[in-house]
Structure prediction request, 376 residues.
Amino acid sequence: MTTKQFTFWMIIAFLMIIVSFKKSEHSAQMDNGDFQKIDTYLQSIIDTANVSGLAIAITSGPEVVYSKGFGVTNIETKKKLKPGYNFHIASISKTFVATAVMQLSERGKIDIDKPLITYLPYFKLNDERYKTITIKQMLNHTSGMPDVNDYEWEKAVADEGAAERYTRSLSDQKMVSNPGAEFHYSNMAFDVMGDLIAKVSGMSFEKYVKDNILTPLEMKETSFYFPETKKKLRTTPHTGKPPVVRPVYPYNRMHAPSSTLNTNVLDLSHWAIANIYGGKYKNKQIISPSTYAMMFAPTFIIDPNQKISIGLSWFMRPDNGVMNYSHDGGDLGYRSSLTIIPEKKIGIIILSNTDEIQILEVRDKVLDILRSTSRL
Prediction:
């Protein structure tokens, strides 16, 4: 063996030792009991609170440091729930819609300060004020548009014309305030933005999000289009105490943008990391850091006493001296929570397949445990 060959193999051996050390260091980090309290707490919810199942993932920096499933995917089949199983995540869907709109804004296809009718001239409400509703007002729930009364999940509408048909169906709807004047949470506004995204991008809303957000972020099991999700990875919605299976899964393509993203905690961890790092996951930058900064800047104060504000779809509140950015979701049979703390590089995702769980209380308890173990 030559001196050069010897030196080469010595370098390789040294690098392997370093990699092995890093792996063992990470394993030790996961095995040292830091997350035992979370395990115990979440299992107690399954055991004593009549909860069918829940899954959690916690990110720290660019990695998932903890993920686990508790309970079952279906109370009847008793199939054990794992982190890779999918949930209907309801309103967390809106954060993806907002990012899609802002991507198109960066590309010069949308001006969020212009009225919606600039892009959807057939949009109309039973109130002349609709003509001045801007896209930005829709993104921060100050459009004055009402909320959805009936999602008609039982119809399971899935055709591609659903988005435009929904927009055209709103001509008898009354506004609830002047555009820009008040905060009124509106699923309707986000559903209409699905039609907006489709029209300005030239493809369906679901395909645009898949091509421009989900695929770049390696969210391989995530989709707004329920029929294409893998049956073997689906969870079942539950309600009641003790829990029973709900007969209808919440899906209607007319309401895809506001509510119907199906995903799991592992895929959502990619989303959390991308938002913590200004639109970047691994080597993929899906949107500029300056645009993300705009999305996370307060645009309207919702509760001055608790200092809760909203940016562009994201809610923000100070907690123990740091700003938390979050969005939660709730639909028939499901509850979900996503919280990111960019200052600490922490993300927390909690999903449950029952509508009886107090998901925010669970999230807050997990935050308390992380603080107690000096992780937050």
About this structure: Residues 68 and 83 are 5 Å apart (CA to CA).
